[in-house]
Write a structure and sequence with these properties.
By secondary structure, the protein is an alpha/beta fold. The chain folds into two domains: about 250 residues, Rossmann fold, CATH 3.40.50; about 160 residues, glycerate kinase, domain 1, CATH 3.40.1480. Helices cover about 40% and strands about 15% of the residues. The protein is built from 16 helices and twelve strands. Helix 7 crosses helix 9 and helix 13 packs across helix 16.
């Protein structure tokens, strides 16, 4: 198998390990004496809903609503799948979230609430407090996305602008709650995934204000006023750890980035290539992380240490991009373009970086593949990775080379996948 195919197949192995259709059934509770309502949000919401339908007894009540990203739906019979915008929320997500919250409020103690949570849910399950318009929520979301703030810190802000996130969905239920979660955050903290709609929230309004200040985000007046009111105690905080609202709530993380990295490692091992898992919590500026990885590659190629070739360096996590230009490219393209600039055509080194949800940022590709001849082919076309990086335009670099990885929606999401193959 050629190196490019090895890398692409390793990505598919990682994605397959997080497939809700293979994972959800084993974690479902038994049916209750009353009704079962299924709600949820995220890029994996439709596949998770279908998995519940396939496993649930045909003679037991089941219905519900989940909201997923546009073009991520799947055909279901008992659970409605709605679509909305990601990463910036829209009115469709607001309408869906309001209906979800209303349906949850109708449940009684004899019923069961199953909540399906996955990455992307923070945008898709958007129900701002009454003092904040959807337009203002969009504005602060766009600013946070461009600021380079990590997703966990972005979600602290979003929890404190929401009527449904930060544990408020669970607090609205009189029925027992079982939340099944596909993790797209480093550390797999359930309270950070999709802004933790069924989890206690330890963060505060003061934290949210500090994050906006740290990343130079100037929010709309309504957002600032609401957060300041929270700081003064004139609006309620999110429900905290120890709150009785969570006494009958179970939060289960059923898929993680590390499980997917282990699957990729097993794939490489089966092809006589030593895998080295560098961790699933890699964060920081994508272009800077690439420089560190390039230094490690140079050590391996030059001195066969700290790892002997052939070796696959595998990692996950979620890097960030501080937007300076107006080019096309998500964090995976940014990482690979920076790696291309650093390695400058080094022989016998191949790499892939792709988002397991199939969408790198807001583009139509999952990521891209880098080969030893990428630099030479780019030079022949008159393009430079370093120059395009100045405009955050990694997408155009790999598009010109024909090296984008386009998979379409995978309907799961366990963060980014990176593998560097040193032969």
């Amino acid at each position: 198998m050629n190196p490019r195919s090895l890398l692409i197949d390793s990505f598919h192995a990682a994605v397959a390990a997080a497939d809700p259709l293979k994972l959800v059934a084993a974690h479902l509770p038994p049916p209750p004496s009353g009704r079962t309502l299924v709600v949820g949000a995220g890029k994996a919401a439709a596949s998770m809903a279908l998995a519940v339908e396939l496993a649930w007894p045909a003679d037991r009540p089941l219905d519900g609503i989940v909201v997923t990203r546009y073009a991520h739906g799947m055909p279901t019979n008992r659970i409605r799948v709605l679509e909305a915008s990601h990463p910036v929320p829209d009115n469709a997500g607001e309408v869906a979230s309001a209906e979800i919250l209303a349906r949850v409020g109708e449940l009684g103690p004899e019923d069961l609430l199953i909540v399906l949570v996955s990455g992307g849910g923070s945008s898709l399950l958007s129900l701002p407090v009454s003092a904040i318009s959807m337009a203002d929520l969009k504005a602060v979301t766009k600013s946070l996305l461009a600021s380079g703030a990590p997703i966990t810190e972005m979600n602290v802000v979003r929890k404190h602008l929401s009527r449904i996130q930060g544990g408020r969905l669970a607090a609205a239920s009189k029925a027992p709650v079982v939340s099944l979660i596909v993790s797209d955050v480093t550390g797999d903290d359930p309270s950070a995934i999709a802004s933790g709609p069924t989890c206690p929230d330890a963060s505060t309004y003061a934290d949210a204000l500090a994050i906006l200040k740290r990343y130079g985000v100037n929010p709309p007046v309504s957002v600032s006023d609401h957060l300041q009111a929270g700081l003064r105690g004139t609006v309620d905080e999110t429900p905290k750890p120890g709150d009785s609202a969570f006494s009958n709530v179970s939060n289960k993380v059923i898929a993680t980035a590390h499980q997917s990295l282990d699957a990729a490692a097993a794939f490489f091992r089966s092809h006589a290539i030593t895998p080295v898992v560098l961790g699933d919590t890699v964060t920081g500026e994508a272009s800077e992380v690439a420089k560190v990885y390039a230094a490690l590659v140079r050590e391996i190629r030059g001195f066969n240490q700290p790892f002997a070739t052939p070796v696959a360096l595998i990692s996950g996590g979620e890097c960030t991009v501080t937007v300076r230009g107006n080019g096309r490219g998500g964090r995976c393209a940014e990482f690979l373009a920076s790696l291309a600039a650093e390695l400058d055509g080094m022989s016998d080194v191949y790499a892939i970086a792709a988002d397991t949800d199939g969408i790198d940022g807001t583009e139509d590709n999952a990521g891209a593949v880098l080969s030893p001849d990428s630099a030479a082919r780019a030079a022949a076309l008159g393009i430079s990775a370093r120059k395009l990086l100045e405009n955050n335009d990694g997408y155009s670099y790999f598009s010109a080379l024909g090296d984008l990885l386009v998979t379409g929606p995978t309907r799961t999401n366990v963060n980014d996948y990176r593998a560097i193959l040193v032969l």
